[in-house]
Amino acid sequence: MTSNQRVAYTRYMNWDKDAIFKALSDPTRRLILDELSERNEVTLYELTVRLIMKHNLAISRQAIAKHLSVLEDAELVTSEKKGKYRVIIFNNEPLKNLLKGWVE
Fold this sequence. Notes:
Number of helices: 5
CATH superfamily: Winged helix-like DNA-binding domain superfamily/Winged helix DNA-binding domain
Number of domains: 1
Number of strands: 3
Mean pLDDT: 84
Distance between the termini: 26 Å
Order of helices and strands: HHEHHEEH
């Protein structure tokens, strides 16, 4: 690997870590991940209802969608079409990889 390739690779890895930390920096996004870790996959409507009812958040589906966009940028959630609904799915692999070097 040349020096330029190493710099590019390091920048990519740092960006990924930065995106994860940015996603985790917001308490609402952490609540979203908590909910997804319990249920693994939910629709946007279900997630909105759970956040409002269970956590007493005053939040709209549009606001949650913006938070989900940040979580998707960090690859902590994905979404896929199931029937007529789009479900949001938790992906904990980036968290495992992030902590691997520090915890082992």
